[in-house]
Amino acid sequence: MRDSVCSAFDKVEKSVRAFFAGLASNGEFRDEDGVIVAFSGGGDSLGMLIGIAAVLGCENIVAAYVDHGIRSRDELDTELRLNAENCRKLGVRFCVCTLVNGAVTQMSRQRRCGTEEAARVLRYEALESKRRELDLGWIATAHNAEDQAETVLMRLLGGKALSSLKGIRRRIGRIIRPVLDISGSLLREVCVERGLVWSDDSTNSEDSYLRNKIRHILVPEIEKLFPRYDEALLRFSCEMEELDSGCVLGNPSDGVSLNLLQSLPQIQRKALLLELWDLSLNDDFVCLSRGMMDRILRAVEQGRSCNLAGSGVWVSILSGRITIHRDVKVGPWKHELDLSRSGERIDLPGGHALVRGDCCQRNDKSVNLSDGKEIYLFSEFLQGRVCVRQVMDGDVINLAGGRKNVLDLMQEMGIPRPKRGLVPLVCDEKEVVAVMGRAFGGSDRICRKCRCTLAPNDLSLYIVE
């Protein structure tokens, strides 16, 4: 006699096993990697947790719950107790990632987005932080076939650009979706088999969020006319993925040549821009809108240098190339330099590193600050402590042509605004000695008092990894 509930578990276990086997066959997954399971406590995430535990073993996974600070305390405490008990029964380690009070509201204001998107951004940040803390390989989320169909429907009706209709991807960086091909109802059946009760977030029944409106109001009406609408949308998303541009891009941070884009027919131009967008942002939920696409296309046709901003994303056309990147927000940073030491490496924001090689004297007056890529500074001209730091409002540099505001200088260099806080400034106690803007699309500039000591081959203070 065939047990339907057991059959549900078999299907989930088989699908999850096939997913991880696919990763392993590409050399991307090892048994020792370990997985953070994004665990809301709902039936979908609990069903996925059961499936992953069966495939990988309980010792290789950690269930992480994110407290966004927007639920009532009584409801939250009840949910956490139930979630912890379910994990205990499964033999899975359980942890809670608690966001700073008011973080969701603050993020919503910063990004000028809704509470739903702000909570999502912070949730992924918290999960990534926990993954790094525990030194695990992956973050698994319980996005399933129903979520995929709803996502494609929302984007289709919202007039999003073509690439967004591919829907939710099975993997983005370290984020994986092992149950994307499984229905939510099947995942919940698995929970019933194990005798586990899941928690229901009260906000899931509220129609103040767009996805809930789609789920509770629109989908039931669509199902009356098209009972298998979800299967059709899933096929559509798979076909859209197959129809991807197929253009091979190198490092997305290098962008695409403006001349190449201008040489392509409009439809291929769009396809290449969509692929660059996807690869640069690596995020399912930040879609290229038609409005932004139109702005980019106009700038490409005009061939003008510019920076376009929207939804926390910057599109820059500089020096004949177009690049796409997130709005980079960095806190104040500063590193003191001990010119008497050598061989020290200082990691800087933005993926750069300052490396000081062997100190050597040049005519008994200069100091070699880095190995192979260097700027020579006459130490007799430097006043007190020397440091490398980010730009601050009011910073000026004394150039051969006169005093120049550093932020204005960066703008003239064409350095995108979100990257200006990453540009290293070498300073002593009196003034800004050098602005090292070359790795950000600008140039390296040195102050007048040290001008004659710049290395003849115009090398830089930092290295780019």
Task: Summarize the structure in words.
It is globular and about 75 Å long. The protein is built from 13 helices and 22 strands. The chain has 465 residues and is of the alpha+beta class. Helix content is 38%, strand content 19%. Mean pLDDT is 80; it is low at 1-5, 357-374 and 453-460. It has helices at residues 4-25, 43-56, 73-90, 103-111, 115-134, 145-157, 184-193, 210-225, 229-242, 258-263, 266-281, 290-302, 406-413; strands at 35-38, 61-67, 93-98, 138-140, 171-172, 175-176, 256-257, 306-310, 313-318, 321-326, 334-337, 345-348, 352-355, 366-368, 376-378, 386-389, 396-399, 402-405, 425-427, 432-436, 444-446, 462-464. Strand 19 and strand 20 form a beta hairpin. The protein folds into three domains: 4-241, HUPs (Rossmann fold, 3-Layer(aba) Sandwich), CATH 3.40.50.620; 245-326; 334-464, no CATH class. The strands form six sheets. Strands 3-2-1-4-6-5 form a six-stranded mixed beta sheet, sandwiched between helices.
Q: Strand sequence of the main sheet, in spatial order?
A: 3-2-1-4-6-5
Number of domains: 3
CATH architecture of the largest domain: 3-Layer(aba) Sandwich
CATH topology of the largest domain: Rossmann fold
Backbone structural class: alpha+beta
Number of helices: 13
Overall helicity: 25-40%
Principal-axis shape: globular
The biggest beta sheet reads:
6 strands, mixed
Could you tell me the mean pLDDT? 80
Distance between the termini: 61 Å
By CATH reckoning, the class of the largest domain would read Alpha Beta
* Gyration radius, in Å: 26 Å
The total strand number stands at 22
